[in-house]
Amino acid sequence: MYWVFISIIVFAAQLCNGFYLPGSYMHTYVNGDNIYAKVNSLTSIETELPFSYYSLPYCKPLGGIKKSAENLGELLMGDQIDNSPYRFQMNVNESIYLCTTTPLNEHEVKLLKQRTRDLYQVNMILDNLPVMRFAVQNGVKIQWTGFPVGYTPPGSNDDYIINHLKFTILVHEYEGSNAEIIGTGEEGLGVISESDKSKASGYQIVGFQVSPCSVKYDPEVMTSLHMYDNITSISCPSELDKYQVIKEQERISFTYEVEFVKSDIKWPSRWDAYLKMEGSKVHWFSIMNSLMVIFFLAGIVFVIFLRTVRRDLTRYEELDKEAQAQMNEELSGWKLVVGDVFREPNCSKLLCVMVGDGVQILGMGGVTIVFAALGFMSPASRGMLLTGMILLFLILGIAAGYVSVRLWSTIKGTTEGWRSISWSAACFFPGIAFIILTVLNFILWGSSSTGAIPISLYFELFFLWFCISVPLTMIGGFMGTRAEAIEYPVRTNQIPREIPARKYPSWLLVLGAGTLPFGTLFIELFFILSSIWLGRFYYVFGFLLVVLLLLIIVCAEVSVVLTYMHLCVEDWQWWWKAFFASGSVSLYVFLYSINYLVFDLQSLSGPVSATLYLGYSLLMAVAIMLATGTVGFLTSFYFVHYLFSSVKID
Hints:
The chain is an alpha+beta fold.
């Protein structure tokens, strides 16, 4: 506590000079400083299977390959960050020779051709900035992160490797200012104090761009050179016969050149080029569309409460007993199910567990999005978003246990069996996730992909779940037994009332209700899927937070309206219908994911890639079902409780 208090005091004292939370600690370099680039896994939007950079015959660093420390999120996303031989000297423009490979064998040629035709990208990092390249398609300038492994001309059987890179590094001259820089990235928390400002003066890297090309060298000439020898500047050829073809017994030479360009971009703004928000009008359209749905549903709820419920309750309460007895023969609708509305639902244990896990998932997603919207989860901190979500899920096990057990004690009228409920809540969603991820992991292992979760990480995740989530869930369940049970406002009859037959199944209405919450979500869902599967940065968490709030409101309103409609036709089995009225949005999310796979991910190739996509989409849909279903159920429960608490029963 002492150190926490001191940290708060120091932090508050620095606020007078301002602070910045970019996601990584600021580095300054002086002229001639050596800067080494790192390489991440090779990725492709065609296969979604990441592979190690050094799985291909690239040049290796002189001191050997060294892996960078990776957090939990990076490991789960398949990132494998290694050092590389690419070395730059601050403000020194030069052309460098790296190495020449041994003659390519059959396996290496097959691998290079396959990675080239699958459109694999090399992902390089300098000072925590991903390399960016620009391309012109149909007259439009498009920016990409990374550069391709190779190039295949249209209609050709030959493939050409990218073996020469022209780097442009944008630098900003920094002389020290009154701004205090606070970092939260891979280097940890750091503050530049007054005494450090003189040391901090120098140059900051604010941009990292590359222009890749293929150049055929004479291997006899190139092998006489040593790594980091200077060579003459090279112009990228335009004729195919001057490209470096990929074929057996070819020796490939790798070279690069670098140019440092002074820039007015300041270090806090260097990520702006990666995070340009495109389609902001579409986001606003999505929000306005959601608001229209909300106002429409709110109008219906308003009518239910003020015109129907209030009027009926007033008439019902003003009648004397004889008049009530006479009126009961004429009554219809929700007032007739007063003795059955709180009857225990089918599979009540499963309902309690799903609602508890839904609260856990909803809390995890809500807190994560709030922190991301406030800027605490910068893309510069790779894997931080996923790591934060996992830690929040583990901690919020206490909420899952509490809600599950309290709902169980409300339905059963006793806390007996709360340990079984708590244990089930701790295992239900993690168990589903474990089964799906294990199946997908075997597929990734079979493909030798870096996206496969190492067996050691499996044990770490199991340890975190068993030693943090399970105990907290049990503690939450124990707290649920100590909480005051929610008392029903009316008594339940011993004999259940017969539900009148209807022309159409009630589940059709429940499934149809999911279209309204989906209408508030699907536009933002498109951007999220593009971020995950097309390698784009998603950083409009402000919009996502607004959409989440609108989604919660729509789910609550839809569920209340549907519950009231079922009660009005004397259907007292509302529990599961209230859950799936809003939870059915997950069905449309999964169907939209399939639609996205067919029409927007047409480049995705092979059954392995499609299986991975559908597996992750199924897991996302289950999480959305639990979260949205919980919102709808809890809202409907309190609505029904309020509705019947105003009815006099003798």
